[in-house]
Write a structure and sequence with these properties.
Distance between the termini of chain C: 38 Å
Organism (chain E): Thiobaca trueperi
Largest sheet of chain A: 2 strands, antiparallel
Protein name (chain E): Ech hydrogenase subunit E
Radius of gyration of chain A: 22 Å
Strand order of the largest sheet of chain C: 1-2
Pfam families (chain E): Complex1_49kDa, NiFeSe_Hases
Oligomer: heterohexamer
Radius of gyration of chain C: 25 Å
CATH class of one domain in chain A: Alpha Beta
Number of domains of chain C: 1
Structural class of chain C: mainly alpha
Number of helices of chain A: 3
Distance between the termini of chain A: 71 Å
Number of strands of chain C: 5
Strand content of chain C: under 5%
Shape of chain A: elongated
Cofactor (chain E): Ni(2+); Fe cation
Structural class of chain A: alpha+beta
Strand order of the largest sheet of chain A: 1-4
Bound molecules: iron/sulfur cluster
GO molecular function, one term (chain E): ferredoxin hydrogenase activity
Order of helices and strands of chain A: HEHEEHE
Number of helices of chain C: 25
Shape of chain C: globular
Chain lengths: 118, 286, 653, 132, 359, 149
């Protein structure tokens, strides 16, 4: 009866509720540490560019002169270096993944902010 | 040839694919559930085929389409004969022709995976043909006729007399339905050493033809299975054959794929052990 | 009667005429016309005598006597010629002259018997023999036509050029066609002789011809195989002669007439029938005796087609079919069937291993003859019906295949099935002919299916030993599977699209085209019109046997819808390509799937080491799984035992 | 965890003999690799036995980068040597299975053979800004 | 006589990763199998010129997404050696926990793919179902599902609180029960045995001579597990390397199956003995100098990091020799004479990691 | 609504990915995510596929392969690039054998960011691609009608 264990397993599976998470319809609660995407709040940023320097993929571009900060999510590898580097706490980690994009327009993802934040 | 038989036969031609698609859909849901997945909707096979007709068709050679039409045609003929109550042996031969035409379609593309797929399919045919041929022979010994209508009108206990042959048939049913452990030549699931085996180089409407052919085949095989129990009456025969048919899903999910040589050896052994022994016993005691 | 005489004499004279020509072109034209004439004559015979009751012919006393003496002397001459040829034997072939001498001795013992039976009606004609004559005349004629051009090429290039030129002088080339015609004459003789001694003479002539034709190229291999054929056929000859001795000197039946032998039934005629059956088995290359046919494949292709597919081997089964009523319902008959069955099974399996097209054809020939022998051993009306249909289908389809294989070999320069890749695209006409041949050989609704259908039905209702029938049915069941495999893989090669553009090739010679297309047409017609053949030739024959009470009345015959459905399938198989051709789908072409490593839409891919490699596909030969040597040994041993058993049961009855 | 595994320098002509010696002593080839220097390539090989690893280094000149193959002694060396060939442009006579420069086909050919320019610091933000 | 020639890969459904084999077949017997790689070669060793030595940890982690953690661990420990610092004990233990979690997830992933390679779909699904539970633990503790991102030079980036430790321990026990059932199935199923027993034989001598590593060499009866060097917490835990004798595909599967159980045990030991304290020592201001060869055991076997630095921010030479690279020669050896249907099975039982292999 | 949205078959190719995104993609097929709910089947064969999912960036070898696979997919089809590598080269963008994102060789329709992209994000990406495919299927139908007319 060597096929017995697998048969039991398979029939049990068929009897039980599937393990499937019905993703788009039901969403599970993310863990506290889940790395979804890098979120940015301009309020406290003083454009020190530490984050840009620490970013291994150069996803972040910040300019002290123009007082701009931009991130290209197509480059970000979620390493959290920028978050750890930012002394102002402007960069945080969101537990939601950045949504899929229809165009990888690099400039389009660079969001420039005026100095008194919106 | 009663009017009833003709209706049934034409109903097969038109509704057969639908029924076959439902069987396939159920199969997929059951498989999914056994793997603790949710699985596709019941009509998924139909969506798939309709989608395939929407797609462009890429061919390696235009002749492959010809063979595929032949495959479908002979599949339909085989079922037509069966449901008309005609000659079982003839239905079987039509089935074999259709199988060969499918192999030819794959051979025609002359690309490595298709070729290996069809060579393996031929080996599988070699594995199951003897048993498949023994089934009508068994019926003949019991009822004295190859005709389906006579077999249906047989004695209710003939399924007991044909017990060994039934076992053999269930065995090769696994091969015919392309189920693990015998899904060597192509499988309904992805991920295997032959890519998609036989069907690797079919696309779009060509692939849809193959799928429709398989739906027909599902119904035909269910029909064959039904024949064993037919004298019991529909109320018994249909549920029993459906349960046995879906028993194949369990088999599919509890086995790894075998290689061709063990498959061939095993199926010939089973044919000899169950099929032939049953025939011999029948001819000795009948 | 005059027609029969004509049929026997005409090819003989034709042969002599060919022998006397000097000019090659003239000779070739002559052969063409003679072949047409021969075919025409047999057609005429068929037209005059279809649905005929058996007719027997008497000759004048004087003529019979003269012929008696002529054939006796002829027989001795044949034996002497063969003895002379034996100067080339080597080593273990010493048994050949010994057999020759034994056979000669036995024959003299028969012929010089003090009171031998009188043969009143030395020739006969029934619808079966008419059918056989038709096969011999038409197919033999077509093969001769094919041979005209083929032999031309054979000597012009390839091994024919190197070997035949040195070893075979012009005279030998002239004799080639002479021998073909002599052979056809002898075949007619076999088909129409009721006089067993005369029949035996013709039998010997075919043996001689086959020996000569096989050894034709004169290479050592050819000569050795010629001797092998000779030796094995002589075993049959000795056995035949033994039967004659029994009929002359033995107790009980005392006759030299075939019809009386058959009519005597199993009680009286079993022993001589068994002995003659052994001769039939040797000629039709059944299992212990099959090796000669394989060796004979060294002969030029038309010879293979003629001797080993459509005619010579048919002489063996012809005789067996004739004797079938004797075997009906006997253990010897069952054993005969089993020999056929074993041969069928073993050779079908071995055929999978073969690469060379000719060898596949050879094995499948043996397998098919095995199927016929299976039918004969049971000897009911249905199995005889099946056996005769098998003979017809096999003759046309196999001749077609042999000739097509030969032509292909000449045109594309390779005899392997593997070399025929993409023939449908490279040589559509040739491929179509070959496909028709293959379909005719095994596929529903074509030829073999019908016969298998009938045999299966007959086997399951056989009554000698109920198990025997099942056993035979199981043999068919298991033997059909490999058949399906090797034919399908061959077809697969033919239909595969070629991987690169093919160089322009030689044109198809006219003679070969005529032969091929006529045969293709014949195959198709035979399949489509087999009920007609049945009605014209087979039914009258089995009917007369039933009428004479020799075999039981017709049991379950094919129901009409079965035939109708088959015809419908056949029509579908033909209509589909035509429809397709009229309205081809417009699909975009793309290269095959090569794991994404394709190079520019070709069949090459970028492989390891940066090399561009072309993919290759070879069909499966399963050499690890089906071992030819082992199977052959099992087959030889098994069939040898069965043969001995058959002779014993024959004798014990 | 520092194992204090030794790195020893070898002359080029001892390259093969050392390999033979280690092979006969039951060592196993662990890896081979190279480092590009200004005027030579440093080729390194590691053998181990019972978890002990020994490393050897030799130098081959840039203008004549030839390294005798070890693949006849350690069959597994063929992968490393092909790699050296493709990435460093080293010529390896005696390679048993020679991919002829097609082991690793790269966008930049023989990528490792260039001058070793260690950039001061990581890429700077301003530079990155210009690029984006 | 021509043979069938099949390009196996780079895109092939049985291989999740691109690798190519030129297969030459006689019927279905492999006459020759020539591998061709380079489909994943990125050239990341040279990235050391661009990223400083701390950032390189993130590059190293992405050498492969399956043993991602162990790659970063190996890199960091190598650098620590060059810097002359040592990660605090708590970091060492947590590194071990994550490494073993990563081993379990890798082996389960492999188990699924192997099952898939011989057409056992439900087994594939089942093992990935269990794997998903492990991945959940990984996600909860690190925030990533495949790229952990928790290892850094000098220690680790994230700590686990007592609650989490408790929860993880509990969940692992449940998972282990489910896993045991799966392992039983795998071990006992006759069709699995049909496909693996006696297939792809590699004798101990061959394995050693060809330089096989990891489960491949251990399945051939040779004890070699780099964890025995005692890096991280391994020196302080109770365990013995797992060895099988047969050297066939089945033995290689068996080694991995047992290793999964062993890893469950190792994690439990670590969590039980988890020391308290700091999780990192600062590497601030230090610059790596000298050279080091650091070896550790990945799910697929021994990986070697060679680092050379001369006191600057960037390494002078960074080199990774991954286990799959060492297993290629044995693979080619085993493929010869196998059957086409065995090819995926043999390939998968060395558990190839093309990504790390080609870097 | 065309049927292609109900039965999108996918082809996955790991260009030069680190496996991270690949295993997340595979995870989508397994019980916890089970994309067969949407009729998605992993075909492993370009000729059957509707959506091409590429992970990893393009390098010297994989350039041709990606092109070939794309060419062997029958229309209508869509391409989804998964993970930072496939989008832009990610952390390997500066490596000497990396050309950059997938869009360097074939047109990409949907970009799924992440390193590794989560199964949820991949599912979202495929759903986005369905809308595009729907459009293309309709367009294709129109074209065919025009040819037939
Ligand atoms: S590092 Fe902190 S303090 Fe310095 S500039 Fe950036 S945000 Fe401001
Ligand atoms: S705060 Fe940081 S980034 Fe800004 S200038 Fe100082 S060191 Fe540079
Ligand atoms: S998480 Fe890493 S990659 Fe992403 S922006 Fe921050 S530093 Fe750059
Ligand atoms: S590190 Fe923080 S404060 Fe500085 S630029 Fe980046 S986000 Fe702004
Ligand atoms: S083609 Fe072959 S058989 Fe024919 S003559 Fe030439 S060499 Fe002889
Ligand atoms: S073997 Fe390499 S590429 Fe494969 S999963 Fe492991 S680390 Fe990744
Ligand atoms: S072998 Fe290498 S690439 Fe594979 S998982 Fe391990 S570290 Fe990663
Ligand atoms: S995006 Fe990240 S996880 Fe995905 S392949 Fe690239 S490095 Fe790996």
């Amino acid at each position: 009866m060597s096929w017995f264990p697998i048969s039991t397993l398979v029939t049990r599976n068929a009897m039980q509720r599937p393990a499937t998470r019905l993703y788009p319809f039901e969403q599970r609660t993310p863990y506290a540490r889940t790395r979804g995407h890098v979120a940015f709040a301009i309020d406290n940023c003083d454009f020190c560019t530490v984050c840009a320097v620490k970013c291994p993929t150069r996803a972040i571009v910040a300019s002290k002169k123009d007082r701009t900060w931009a991130i290209d999510h197509s480059l970000c590898i979620l390493c959290e270096n920028c978050i750890e580097g930012c002394r102002e706490g402007c960069i945080t980690l969101s537990d939601k993944p950045w949504p899929p994009m229809l165009a990888k327009d690099v400039l389009g993802f660079r969001q420039a902010f005026e100095s008194p934040a919106v | 040839m009663t009017a009833h038989a003709w209706t049934l036969a034409f109903a097969f031609l038109i509704l057969g694919p639908l029924l076959g698609a439902l069987l396939a859909g159920l199969d997929r849901i059951l498989t999914a559930r056994m793997q603790s997945r949710r699985g596709p909707p019941l009509l998924q096979p139909i969506y798939d085929v309709l989608k395939l007709f929407e797609k462009d068709t890429l061919v390696v050679t235009s002749l492959q389409t010809l063979y595929l039409w032949g495959f479908l045609l002979f599949m339909a003929i085989s079922g037509f004969i069966l449901f008309l109550g005609g000659d079982l042996l003839l239905s079987l031969f039509a089935l074999a022709v259709s199988g060969i035409l499918l192999c030819l379609a794959a051979y025609a593309t002359n690309s490595p995976y298709s070729n290996i797929g069809s060579s393996r399919e031929l080996m599988l045919m070699m594995a199951y043909e003897p048993m498949l041929l023994i089934v009508p022979l068994g019926f003949f010994l019991v009822t004295g006729s190859f005709r389906v209508s006579d077999i249906i009108a047989g004695e209710p206990w003939q399924v007991l007399e044909l017990g060994g042959i039934l076992i053999g048939f269930l065995f090769i049913l696994t091969i015919k339905l392309r189920k693990s452990p015998f899904d060597l030549s192509s499988s309904h699931h992805g991920h295997q050493e032959l890519v998609k085996g036989l069907t690797t180089d079919f696309s779009g409407s060509d692939l849809a033809l193959v799928e429709i052919g398989h739906w027909y085949e599902n119904v035909i095989l269910l029909g064959w299975l039904y024949l064993f129990f037919a004298p019991l009456g529909v109320a018994w025969a249909l549920p029993i054959s459906l349960i046995l048919f879906f028993g194949e899903v369990l088999v599919d999910n509890t086995h790894a794929r075998l290689k061709w040589a063990p498959t061939l050896r095993l199926s010939w052994w089973v044919t000899g052990l169950f099929g032939v022994t049953n025939l011999v016993l029948l001819s000795l005691f009948a | 009667m005059p027609l029969i005489a004509l049929l026997i004499l005409f090819p003989l004279c034709a042969g002599l005429a060919v022998l006397s020509t000097r000019d090659i072109e003239q000779r070739e034209n002559l052969v063409r016309w003679l072949a047409y004439g021969l075919g025409g004559a047999t057609l005429l015979l068929a037209l005059l005598h279809f649905r005929t009751e058996p007719e027997f012919f008497t000759l004048g006393q004087g003529l019979t006597g003269a012929l008696d003496n002529l054939f006796m002397l002829g027989g001795i001459a044949v034996s002497l010629y063969l003895l002379y040829a034996c100067r080339q034997i080597k080593g273990r072939e010493w048994y050949i002259p010994v057999l020759l001498l034994v056979q000669m001795g036995l024959m003299l013992f028969v012929e010089l018997a003090p009171e031998h039976p009188v043969v009143a009606r030395p020739f006969y004609l029934d619808s079966f023999s008419v059918l056989m004559a038709l096969i011999v005349g038409v197919i033999g004629g077509l093969i001769c036509i094919h041979a005209v051009r083929y032999m031309h090429d054979y000597h012009a290039h390839g091994h024919g050029a190197q070997e035949a030129k040195t070893t075979c002088p012009e005279r030998r080339r002239r004799s080639f066609f002479f021998m073909l015609f002599v052979f056809l004459a002898a075949m007619f003789g076999i088909v129409f002789s009721n006089h067993l001694l005369w029949l035996f003479f013709f039998w010997e002539v075919t043996t001689l011809c086959s020996f000569w034709l096989i050894a034709y190229s004169g290479t050592d291999e050819a000569v050795r195989n010629g001797f092998r054929a000779l030796g094995i056929n002589l075993i049959g000859g000795v056995s035949f002669a033994g039967a004659l001795v029994w009929l002359t000197h033995g107790p009980g039946l005392h006759t030299w007439e075939l019809d009386q032998l058959v009519a005597a039934g199993s009680a009286l005629a079993l022993i001589p029938a068994v002995l003659i059956a052994v001769a039939g088995l040797t000629k039709s290359a059944q299992m212990p005796f099959s090796s000669w046919l394989l060796g004979a494949m060294v002969a030029p292709t038309p010879v293979s087609a003629l001797l080993h597919s459509s005619t010579l081997v048919k002489a063996g089964v012809f005789l067996l079919v004739k004797l079938a009523p004797v075997f009906h319902n006997t253990y010897a008959g069952l054993l005969l069937s089993l020999i056929g069955g074993l041969t069928f099974l073993v050779t079908s399996l071995i055929a999978i291993n073969q690469r060379s097209a000719k060898l596949v054809l050879a094995y499948s020939t043996i397998a098919n003859l095995g199927l016929i022998v299976m039918c004969v051993g049971i000897g009911t009306a249905a199995t005889l019906w099946a056996a005769i249909l098998l003979i017809v289908f096999h003759a046309v389809a196999k001749a077609l295949l042999f000739l097509a294989a030969g032509t292909t070999a000449h045109l594309i320069g390779g005899r392997d099935i593997e070399d025929m890749e993409g023939l449908v695209y490279r040589r559509p006409a040739l491929a179509a002919a070959m496909l028709i041949g293959i379909l005719g050989m095994f596929l529903a609704p074509f030829g073999m299916l019908l016969s298998k259908y009938a045999t299966l039905q007959a086997f399951l209702t056989v009554e000698v030993l109920p198990l025997g029938g099942v056993l035979l049915a199981v043999i068919i069941v298991f033997g059909s599977a490999p058949t399906l495999f090797f034919w399908s893989k061959w077809m697969g090669k033919l239909v595969a699209v070629p991987r690169r553009p093919q160089p322009s090739e030689l044109p198809l010679p006219r003679d070969e085209a005529i032969a091929l297309f006529s045969l293709a047409a014949l195959t198709t017609l035979a399949c489509a019109l087999f009920p007609l053949i049945d009605w014209l030739f087979i039914h009258p024959y089995t009917g007369s046997l039933i009428g004479a009470g020799l075999i039981p009345a017709l049991d379950g015959h094919l129901p009409w819808e079965t035939i109708a459905t088959m015809s419908f399938m056949l029509a579908a198989l033909f209509l589909l390509p035509i429809l397709f051709w009229l309205r081809p789908p417009q699909f975009q072409a793309s290269s095959g799937y090569l794991s994404g490593a394709n190079v520019d839409g070709s069949a090459s891919y970028r492989g390891a080491m940066g090399a561009e490699r072309e993919v290759a596909s070879r069909s499966y030969f399963l050499t690890d799984f089906i071992r030819e040597g082992m199977l052959t040994r099992v087959g030889l041993l098994g069939s040898g035992c069965l043969l001995i058993l058959m002779m014993l049961t024959g004798a014990i009855r | 965890m520092s194992l204090g595994e030794p790195f020893e320098d070898l002359e080029l002509d001892q390259w093969v003999t050392t390999a033979v010696r280690h092979q006969s002593e039951g060592f196993r080839l662990v890896q081979m690799t190279g480092t590009a220097r200004a005027d030579h390539f440093e080729i390194m090989v590691s053998y181990d036995k019972d978890y002990r690893c020994v490393n050897y280094r030799t130098r081959i000149p840039r203008d004549h980068p030839e390294l005798p193959s070890l693949s006849a002694i350690f069959p597994a060396a063929f992968t490393y040597e092909n790699e050296l060939k493709d990435l460093f442009g080293v010529v390896v006579p005696g390679l048993t299975l020679d991919y002829g420069g097609n082991f690793l086909r790269t966008k930049t050919k023989i990528a490792f053979s260039g001058e070793v320019v260690v950039k001061k610091g990581a890429a700077t933000a301003t530079k990155a800004g210009q690029e984006v | 006589m021509s043979n069938t020639i099949v390009p196996f890969g780079p895109q092939h459904p049985v291989l999740p990763e691109p690798i190519h084999l030129d297969l030459e077949l006689d019927d279905e017997r492999v006459v020759q199998a020539l591998p061709s790689i380079g489909y994943v070669h990125r050239g990341l060793e040279l990235l050391a010129e661009r990223h400083d030595f701390t950032e390189m940890a993130q590059v190293a982690e992405r050498i492969c997404g399956i043993c991602s953690f162990i790659h970063s661990q190996g890199y960091c420990q190598g650098i620590e050696q060059l810097l002359g610092i040592e990660a605090p004990p708590r970091a060492a233990y947590l590194r071990t926990v994550w490494a073993e979690l990563s081993r379990i997830q890798s082996h389960l992933l492999w188990l699924g793919l192997a099952a898939d390679a011989f057409g056992f779909e439900s087994l594939f699904m089942q093992s990935w179902r269990i794997r998903e539970a492990i991945v959940d633990i990984i996600e909860e503790t690190t925030g990533g599902r495949v790229i952990f991102g928790t290892c850094k030079v000098g220690g680790i980036r994230k700590d686990l609180d007592a609650d989490t430790v408790q929860r993880v321990r509990q969940r692992l026990r449940d998972i282990e029960t489910g896993y045991d059932e799966l392992a039983t199935i795998f071990r006992r199923d006759p069709t699995v045995k049909q496909r693996t027993v006696g297939v792809g034989l590699l004798s101990g001598e061959d394995a050693y001579a060809l330089g096989a590593v990891g489960p491949v060499i251990r399945a051939s009866g040779i004890v070699r597990d780099t964890r025995k060097l005692g890096y991280a917490a391994y020196g302080e835990l109770d365990w013995e390397p797992i060895v099988e004798q047969a050297g066939d595909c089945y033995a290689r599967c068996e080694v991995r199956l047992r290793e999964i159980s062993q890893s469950f045990d190792l994690i439990a030991q670590c969590l039980d003995r988890l020391p308290s304290g700091e999780i990192e020592v600062s590497a601030k201001g230090k610059r790596p100098k000298g050279e080091a060869m650091f070896r550790l055991e990945q799910p697929r076997g021994e990986v070697c990091y060679y680092m050379q630095a001369n006191g600057q921010k960037n390494l002078e030479r960074f080199r990774v020799r991954t286990p799959t690279f060492a297993n290629i020669a044995p693979l080619v050896h085993m493929l010869k004479g196998s059957e086409l249907a065995d090819v995926p099975v043999i390939v998968l039982t060395i558990d190839p990691c093309v990504s790390c292999n080609e870097r | 609504m065309s049927f292609i949205t109900k039965s999108p078959w996918i082809l996955h190719y790991a260009a030069t990915s680190c496996n991270g995104c690949d295993i997340e993609l595979l995870a989508c097929l397994t019980p916890h995510y089970d994309v067969e709910r949407f009729g998605i089947v992993n075909t492993g064969n370009p000729k059957h596929a509707d959506i091409f999912l590429v992970t990893g960036s393009v390098n010297e070898e994989s350039r041709k392969v990606v092109e070939n696979l794309y060419a062997q997919m029958p229309d209508p089809k869509a391409v989804v690039a998964i993970g930072a590598c496939a989008l832009s080269g990610g952390i390997f963008r500066d490596a000497y054998n990396v050309y950059g994102g997938i869009d360097k060789v074939i047109p990409v329709d949907v970009y799924v960011p992440g390193c590794a992209a989560r199964p949820e994000a991949i599912i979202d990406g495929v759903v986005q691609a369905l809308a595009i495919l729907d459009e293309r299927a309709k367009e294709r139908k129109r074209q065919r009608k025009m040819v037939a007319a």
